[in-house]
Design goal:
The complex is a heterodimer. Helix content of chain A is 17%, strand content 29%. The radius of gyration of chain A is 15 Å and the shape is globular. Chain A is an alpha+beta fold. Chain A has one domain: 2-Layer Sandwich (Folate-binding fold), CATH 3.30.2270. In chain A, 24% of the residues are buried. By secondary structure, chain B is of the alpha/beta class. Chain B folds into two domains: 214 residues, 3-Layer(bba) Sandwich (FAD/NAD(P)-binding domain); 149 residues, D-Amino Acid Oxidase, subunit A, domain 2 (D-Amino Acid Oxidase, Chain A, domain 2, 2-Layer Sandwich). Chain B is 29% helix and 25% strand. Chain B has eleven helices and 18 strands. In chain B, strands 1, 2, 8, 9, 10, 11, 17 and 18 form an eight-stranded mixed β-sheet that branches. In chain B, strands 5-6-4-13-14-15-12-16 form an eight-stranded mixed β-sheet. The longest helix of chain B has 17 residues. In chain B, 53% of the residues are buried. The chains are: A alpha+beta, B alpha/beta. At the A-B interface, strand 3 and helix 1 of A face strand 12 and helix 11 of B.
């Protein structure tokens, strides 16, 4: 079972306490965007086998959305950080790079 | 290929069964082929088979990273049905179901198709209306289904508790010609037939890159070296996104784990397939006597072929409520497969932004039942370069244009 630390209330939350929200840091497109941009926002996903950044909600806890870095091939959790982040924190990226030298980096 | 028959068994018995030949060859790759199929699961092998049978294209290699049929083809709950709401879905799944009826004769390999009947329980008034609508749609599509009463449900499956405390059974969508098949035998039968046509099935051969020139594919880099080709069909289910990335395009697909489990074997107690979507559980009994149970998907990207334990608990809780008889059964084995989920939960059989590169993916949680129809449609697409009527609406550009094949809200699927 996945265990993620909620960056807001500090609880180590089991998967059953959380709601998954899939890929994080999507660029939001709306009226005025091209069809390609809107399709990419709605449907195109990185779906990596390896390091992935995703959204989670502490649904049966404090209720807050937060973001997590996780390896989809091993289920290892690298860390969590607040939802008000436009990119993963640098120290978290450094930590992932140290553990996964082959990782091509964020974006 | 020596044909299998009762006579062959008698003949081999006289020579102590020493004369049986390998079901399929284990060749090394040639320098080039007319077409390469990436992925030797059910869909990939069926694609190759119908390329040969329907279009006479037999200079084909089927490349497999692991072993033949070792992915989702060997991990599903073997349910075959075609009671879908949307016309394009019903057409391809009914094509598949009708091909399953004669698959054993066609392949000269016992795929053990058992048209024992599939019932999908309606346990809310919304589901009653939904399944009645599906039954009417199926009548127009030429798919034989009917909406049956709770009493008929009880007659067909006496171990089912139709008076459950939370969700009593209000009726069911019944497809008498649906059923189950032997999943491994489907892969093995297609593999044997492909090998007999002279195709090369190359196992333990992982594709590491796809090469192209002027926007048209030229070959694949593999762990067994470079192989040239004129056409590529990507049929790799859970890893579709990774292989598409090698070819240089993105897919509207996310990979998640779907689980299944089987109980200890018991005496025959149910001879139909039951799906209970409101409480989320489905069950049938294998010929060995095991109760075959399908679980749920996790809500996060996962490539580990194992799912979360709490889904097993939820599934069994639902099934014990539906079938109180199984409450003391021990579960023997549990496993997971990586399924590729698209934005509208319908598959993709499509040309791609790369020339002569075709993709068949996105079958999500319901691919086994579609194998013959999927292979039939994919072979037509690869042979002609344009989709036939079965595949036409399953192209990957429907997400941009908003032409969704919206089965996930149409009560046609369990996830």
């Amino acid at each position: 079972m996945l265990t993620l630390e909620c960056p807001y209330c500090g609880v180590m939350a089991d998967e059953t306490e959380l709601s998954p929200g899939y890929e994080a840091h999507l660029k939001r497109y709306g009226p005025g965007s091209s069809d390609e941009e809107f399709e990419a926002y709605m449907f195109a996903r990185k779906n990596p086998k390896g390091v992935h950044f995703e959204r989670w909600r502490h649904a049966y806890g404090c209720g807050k959305w937060f973001l997590a870095a996780r390896d989809t091939a091993t289920l290892e959790v690298f860390g969590t950080y607040p939802a008000q982040s436009s990119a993963p924190p640098q120290d978290l990226q450094d930590k992932i790079k140290a553990k996964r030298p082959d990782w091509k980096g964020y974006k | 290929m020596k044909r299998y028959s009762a006579f062959a068994i008698a003949r081999e018995a006289l020579s102590n069964h020493m004369g049986w030949e390998r079901a399929w060859a284990a060749p090394q790759p040639k320098a080039a082929y007319d077409a390469i199929i990436i992925g030797a699961g059910g869909h990939g092998l069926a694609t190759a088979y119908y390329l040969g049978k329907n279009f006479g294209i037999t200079n084909v290699a089927i490349l497999e990273k692991g072993w033949l049929g070792g992915g989702n083809t060997g991990r599903n709950t073997t349910i075959i049905r075609s009671n879908y709401l949307q016309d394009s879905s019903a057409a391809i799944y009914e094509k598949a179901r009708s091909l399953y009826e004669t698959l054993s004769q066609d392949l000269n390999y016992n795929a053990m198709f058992s048209p024992r009947g599939v019932m999908m329980l309606a346990q809310t008034h919304h589901e009653v209306r939904g399944y009645q609508r599906t039954a009417h749609a199926n009548a127009l599509q030429g798919v034989v289904t009917e909406f049956i009463s709770p009493q008929r449900v009880k007659e067909l499956c006496p171990i089912l508790n139709i008076d459950g405390p939370r969700y009593p059974v209000l009726g069911a969508l019944w497809q008498a010609r649906g059923g189950t098949g032997r999943h491994d035998a489907v892969a093995w039968g297609y593999a044997r037939a492909c090998s007999a046509m002279g195709m090369d099935i190359i196992q333990n051969c992982e594709v590491k890159g796809i090469t192209s020139a002027n926007g048209v594919v030229t070959g694949v880099e593999t762990t067994k070296g470079y192989i040239g080709t004129k056409k590529i069909g990507i049929v790799v289910a859970g890893h579709s996104g990774q292989v598409a990335d090698m070819a240089g395009f993105r897919l509207p697909v996310e990979a998640v784990a779907l689980q299944a489990l089987v109980s200890e074997p018991i005496k025959p107690c149910m001879d139909v397939v039951v799906m209970a979507n409101t409480v989320h559980g489905y069950m049938s009994q294998s010929d060995k006597g095991e109760m075959v149970i399908g679980g749920g998907t996790d809500g996060f990207n996962n490539f580990t072929q194992r799912g979360s334990f709490h889904h097993i608990e939820e599934t069994l809780r639902a099934l014990i409520e539906t079938f109180p008889i199984i409450s003391r059964l021990k579960m023997l084995r549990q496993w997971g497969g990586i399924v590729d989920m698209t934005g509208d939960r319908s598959p993709i059989i499509s040309k791609t932004p790369v020339g002569n590169c075709f993709i068949n993916c996105g079958w999500g949680t319901g691919g086994f039942k579609a194998i013959p129809g999927s292979g039939w449609a994919m072979a037509e697409l690869m042979a002609k370069g344009e989709p036939g009527p079965l595949a036409a609406e399953f192209d990957m550009w429907r997400f941009k244009e908003g032409r969704f094949i919206d089965e996930s809200v149409a009560a046609g699927v369990a996830h």
